Amino acid sequence: MIALTIILCIFLVLLFTSRQSYPWAIAVAVPIYAWLCWIITRPLPISSNWGAVDRFIIWIALFLSIIPALLRLMFVHRSFDESPSEIDWKPVQASSLFVAIWGGAWLLTPTVPALAGAATCVTIGLLVSVAMFGIARRMPRHRVILVTAGTAMITGVIAILIWPLAVVLAAEQRAAGRPYCLMVAQGINYRTANNLLDLTPLIMRGHEGRRSAANYHGELLISGEANRNWSYEQVDFFDESRDNKPPNCVAAVGFARNLPWL
Q1: Among 46-50, 227-231, 244-248, 252-256, where is mean pLDDT lowest?
Q2: Is the pLDDT at 49 greater than 80, yes or no?
Q3: For 44, which DSSP code?
Q4: pLDDT 10s digits, 93-119
Q5: In Å, what is the CA distance from 14 to each residue of 69, 76, 142, 224?
Q6: Which of 178, 229, 241, 248 qualifies as a FRET site for 217, CA 20 to 30 Å off?
Q7: Mean pLDDT, range 212-224, rounded to an integer
């Protein structure tokens, strides 16, 4: 499995990397470990061939790879020919902060955007990131942390603004010139997509309280064809819908590409 290969590579890097390079090794490992933890804890899509045994094996591998890494970390802290204070841990701090900001944003969506609006969240993220970069110029001591926070937010905003283009492209390719419409998740229900920001993870996220919730982010309704659920993993309207709900939006040719941004 690819996940086990990644874990083995990280384990070897953390075990054998040089003392001065160890903070950089941890900085790389933190987002990868966070991604793996998210992968094995998220709801399974209908098309996934992962099972409980696969997840259990990966959890064990993660646990076994962390123990030697912690022992090596204790060894790095020991004072031999140079003081541990000379090791720069800023890469670890920056990497952990980046993951924390993205993870926090993921946990807050779609609840907060559903209440405040996707456009409001994007605007706030953009303003805060600009403020972080501005403050960093006046506070050299905390520059790394501030720049990291600003970078995490601005990259998130850019990713959100670009993402609807992928959804529109997938919908147009599936529709192949036929009338269609898009519905996006709103808790455990659906509503018609009103703008392009509705097609982002800020809004188009299914309720994750059930095993297969990842399949209920959004739905493509094509005239004369079975409805299809949006899959972030496949970046496509991949699985046929099993909801059997009647359409509640009006199909039109080029529905997604004619949506306004706001």
Answers
A1: 46-50
A2: no
A3: P
A4: 888 999 999 888 888 887 888 888 889
A5: 6, 11, 27, 55
A6: 178
A7: 73
Average pLDDT over residues 220-235: 83
The pLDDT of residue 212: 47
Q: Give yes or no for a cis peptide into 91 (omega within 30° of 0).
A: no
| pLDDT > 90 in the chain, percent | 17
Helix (H), strand (E) at residue 51: none
109: containing domain? 89-262
Which residue do the tokens 């470990």 mark?
Answer: 33
Full-model pTM: 0.75
The phi and psi torsions of 153 (rounded to 5 degrees) equal -70, -45
d(CA 76, CA 70): 10
The verdict on 2 and 114 lying in the same domain is no
Q: Rounded to whole angstroms, what are the CA distances from 116 to 15, 108, 199, 213?
A: 46, 12, 16, 23
Task: Give bridge partners of residue 183 from the DSSP assignment.
Answer: 192, 219
Domain tally for the chain?
A: 2
DSSP state letters, 112-170? HHHHH-HHHHHHHHHHHHHHHHHHHHH-GGGHHHHHHHHHHHHHHHHHHHHHHHHHHHH
Q: Are 97 and 22 in a shared domain?
A: no
Do 114 and 177 lie in one domain? The reply is yes
CA 209 to chain centre: 18
Average pLDDT over residues 137-152: 84
Question: Which among 153, 174, 178 is positioned nearest to 231, based on CA atoms?
Answer: 174
Q: Are residues 130 and 245 in the same domain?
A: yes
